[in-house]
Amino acid sequence: MGLSSIENYVANHLRMFILAVFGLVIFVGIIAVSVFFYAVRGAEQTMVPDITGKELTEAMLELQAKELYPRLQLRYSHTSRDKGYILEQDPLPGTIVKAGRRIRLIVSQGVILNRVENFVNRNIDEVRLDLMTIQSTAGNLPLLSIREPLMYEFSTERPGTILAQKPEPGTDISGPMTMEFVVSKGRENQNVTVPQLTGLTIARALEEITSSGINFQFSVREKNTGESGETVVAQVPPANSTIPLNSLVQIVVTSPDRVADNERAGLFKYTIPQNPYPLLIRLEAILPSDAEPQKLLTANYMGGEFTFPYKLPAGSVLVLTMMNRVLYRETLE
What we know:
Layout: H1 3-41, E1 45-47, H2 56-65, E2 69-75, E3 86-90, E4 96-98, E5 102-108, H3 124-133, E6 144-146, E7 151-153, E8 162-166, E9 177-184, E10 191-193, H4 202-212, E11 215-221, E12 232-236, E13 242-244, E14 248-254, E15 263-272, E16 279-286, E17 294-301, E18 304-313, E19 317-322, E20 325-331
Parallel strand pairs: 2-5, 6-9, 7-9, 11-14
Antiparallel strand pairs: 1-4, 3-5, 8-9, 10-13, 12-14, 15-18, 16-17, 16-19, 19-20
């Protein structure tokens, strides 16, 4: 092979080598640019939801649905009712961010009590629940407790409203203290008008009872010829009578037209302690086929023997509560 042939051979291979190196550089460059733009684009964008004022668990579920993650910070607030709720968030609601972003949440851990709050004009039952959440670290004693029995006075304020307190608001708390409250019983000699209940179905009569605020008691008798089942057939006092607010209205209803083998019908009974003013009660039925309770009655009740007619599937559970506290439950076998 001549010298010129060798030179041509070397030149050709050198050219091929240079082209290969150049092609490799271009390929690596394309890969690098693709990775860069993928990194810049990142994850999908999402909008930050408004979770301020919501309970922590609910807020975290909303963030999870948006593929966002919380960064929690705890802070004391001005009231124990905020405990466990979101006070602030960053970024603000409506901000567009990448999925996977951490959202800073300021969560209330309640209130540090070093002075007595002003409880006047608040409802005594709400205050009672508030104070139960505030515990002293020494001996597990309540930092603030309520002296029982309470003192009651007639007042133009709503029943249950705190009229006065001792110690006074702003008093320093140096240890466990007992609060004394004067609570409104409502207006003295307040009257109500008895609604027309006779002839109404039980469901319709309950609507009238709830709206009028009367104190009531049911009884059940077998229906006579020509009467409909589960209907009010008598009431004492009669309709349009003017009676004191806490007077009892006796309501007689007929038994159901038909009760199937898998149903139970009767009169629910439970004696509720007498209250100085009507308190909110709720009667619910937990049916065997339904996890959600069925509301039967919500009303204000003074106390005494509470009765309620029912027709429900066998195995249902009747639950009576007062101010969200379970008083009694009964299973319909």
